[in-house]
TrEMBL record:
InterPro entries: Sel1-like (IPR006597), TPR-like_helical_dom_sf (IPR011990). Coiled coil: none annotated. It comes from Lithospermum erythrorhizon. This is Binding protein. Gene3D superfamilies: Tetratricopeptide repeat domain. The lineage of its organism: Eukaryota, Viridiplantae, Streptophyta, Embryophyta, Tracheophyta. PANTHER family: OS02G0202600 PROTEIN. SMART domains: SEL1.
């Protein structure tokens, strides 16, 4: 007689335990969702500012309503979820870049550092760039590269391109073209136009693809070859470069279009010269 009641009681107690256990996760998910809604609204207002800001003064009064809307929504997102790094990052941009009422450079810098320390790749990249170029009297390269490398670890395209440029030029580090190619390759995979152009131009100059990248080009190797037998000689640098320039052109890069046009003209010239050569008897 007691068995049904015991089963019911145990089920109820387990249900309450499950509720206690999973409610924080549900609450966290709810906070994240609400915060992202606020961020989306703030970001939408900020994109509208970016759309017209090139055609007016930075402190144009007509931008103030949009800037206030963006600022309020990013602040609301932080009130809902104080651990949200995206809200911190975008709010820091408002304080540092835009003429929003109540803007404060110190607050913007603090928010940017917090977002970077909390792991936001956009914040890490921007903080690294600011430390690298905005401190004429402070040797901050080490700090800058610390944050840039953190962003690279998360495959941030801008950070990958910047680190690749540093390796290519040998600025502050030992020149390493192979590492530069790796960075440019991974950035171009994410649609970074500058990285795609840099990667393609290096291929045309005869630089060999690092072994670590050959696995990404297995599909270009003959079908009868195994994955491990892919070598640089199996690849076509011209076709690989063309693909990179197409990525850049797709992203709207003028250099991408120019390189594609140049390759096309060179191919036409080569075909024309071959057609005029006398055939050996």
């Amino acid at each position: 007689m007691l068995r049904p009641f015991l089963i019911k009681a145990v089920s109820a107690s387990w249900g309450s335990l499950c509720l206690v256990r999973f409610t924080p996760q549900r609450m966290m998910h709810s906070r994240n969702k609400k915060a992202m809604e606020f961020i989306a609204k703030g970001w939408s207002a900020l994109k509208e500012v970016d759309r017209v800001i090139d055609y007016c003064e930075l402190n144009d009064k007509r931008l103030i309503p949009l800037l206030r809307t963006a600022k309020e929504h990013f602040e609301l997102a932080l009130e809902v979820d104080n651990s949200n790094t995206h809200a911190r990052y975008w709010l820091s941009k408002l304080h540092l870049k835009y003429h929003v009422p109540g803007a404060c450079k110190a607050i913007g810098a603090a928010l940017l550092v917090e977002a970077a320390e909390m792991g936001d790749p956009d914040a890490q990249y921007e903080l690294g760039c600011r430390l690298r170029v905005e401190n004429d009297y402070v040797q901050s390269d080490q700090q800058a590269f610390y944050y840039i490398e953190k962003a690279v670890d998360q495959l941030h395209p801008g950070a990958l391109y910047l680190l690749g440029s540093v390796y290519l030029s040998g600025d502050c580090v030992k020149q390493d073209v192979a590492s530069a190619l790796w960075c440019f390759h991974r950035a171009s995979q994410k649609g970074h136009a500058g990285a795609a152009v840099a990667y393609g131009s290096l291929l045309l100059r005869g630089h060999q693809v690092p072994e670590s990248l050959l696995k990404f080009n297995v599909k270009r190797a003959p079908l009868e070859k195994s994955r491990r037998s892919v070598r640089y000689s199996d690849l076509n640098p011209l076709e690989m470069a063309r693909e990179q320039f197409e990525i850049a052109a797709k992203a709207g890069s003028d250099l991408g279009f120019k390189w594609l046009k140049r390759i096309e003209e060179e191919e036409k010239h080569l075909l024309a010269s071959q057609a005029t050569e006398p055939v050996a008897a």
